[in-house]
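Hey, can you fold this one?
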Amino acid sequence: MSKTKRSIQIRTEIPGPKAKNLLERKYKCIPKGPFNTIQTFAVKGEGALVTDIDGNIFIDFAGAIGSLNVGHRPPGVVEALHRQIDAYLHPCFHVMMYEPYIELAETLNRITPGSHDKKTFFLNSGAEAVENAVKIARKYTGRKAVISFERGFHGRTYMAMSLTSKVKPYKYEFGPFAPETYKWPYPYYYRSEFNSTEQLDDALLQRFETFFQGEVPPEEIAAVIMEPVQGEGGFVIPSQRFVKGVKSLCEKHGILFIADEVQTGFGRTGKMFAVEHFDIVPDLMTMSKSIAAGLPISAVTGRSEIMDAPNIGEIGGTYGGSPLGCVAALEVVKAIEEGNLLERALTIGKVFQERFKNHKTIYPQIGDVRQIGAMCAIELVKDVDSKTPNKELALKIIQAANQNGLMIMSAGLYGNVIRLLTPLVITDEQLNEGLDVLEKAITVCCQ
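Sure. Predicted structure:
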């Protein structure tokens, strides 16, 4: 166990007395639909630490579902927001324009993959970015069909939900869904029956060619949208061979490739964008979450000729690219570039692997330990032979960790994956303290 001064301070049960009072108010005025991972309420966040209403201090390994790569309340963002609030709040870009919108578009055009000419516009959420990327792709190609992948997650609005591949809780009884959306299989090497990643990749790529014969001809497909690493799907990491194979199929048939970087972008995987690991350049890219340290803004960036396909007024939104979101995002990019946070993400991943890589031999309930940069996951199973997903154990471990001051979440089609989205600004001491709590929770719950 770590011997340094502890950051975690748990003074009450979770939820504490003040949190219980707020929970009663919440039950009366908020519908049950929005989920909550930990049953308490934040009053302060700083870096990788969160203090709740009862004075308990937690280490945050959830990062607002990947929205806080630069941590809670990064100083540069806070200062920029104060300056912007003192100037103006929201003239609406469609009414009177403002420079931060232009500056952020120029910045994203610079840092996203590819040396070609690009253009960017802004929205409010990841789902809106996905919706608009699909609109742009359809407008540019004149085609209607869109391909996504099994276990993929792209949002809760109707097109995004149609592209998402998990029934409960995202799609159950919400149909009918958007037409002309189809799913391709995505490699899951831990659960593959093939002897090598290459064999599985080849089999899947061949199935896509067959798909063109049996389901939809490629001439009718506008775009393929892919998370370079699946987020909600369980932090499933494909091979470069597979991703490049999909991109080659798209190029062969004039299909646009959309990289959904909503969860993987802005340094999470040790690259500014996860797609950079796979040596491809997407035609369009969707971004949100960590783009602005928790402020609601999203972006679509793509090749200039594609982005210019919609006519004036056909894309946009009243609050899209708010001045507050734009200035926050500019400071986030600066923090990542000047703070060496890409290297920090790689270091966090290495520490995680060193701590947990041997746990598969210790606990038969741990089926797989995987990571790419600071996107880290532990998959829980009933036993190593059947690999039956163990959602119940994952929930027990998460609850035990939460009660002991560590905020973590689950993921995966079956909810059996513990995912870590640690702020990249976390200190070494905080990182190891949090991993100590997680390790203890695993030990207790796996006995």
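The mean pLDDT is 96. Let me know if you want another pass with a different chain boundary.
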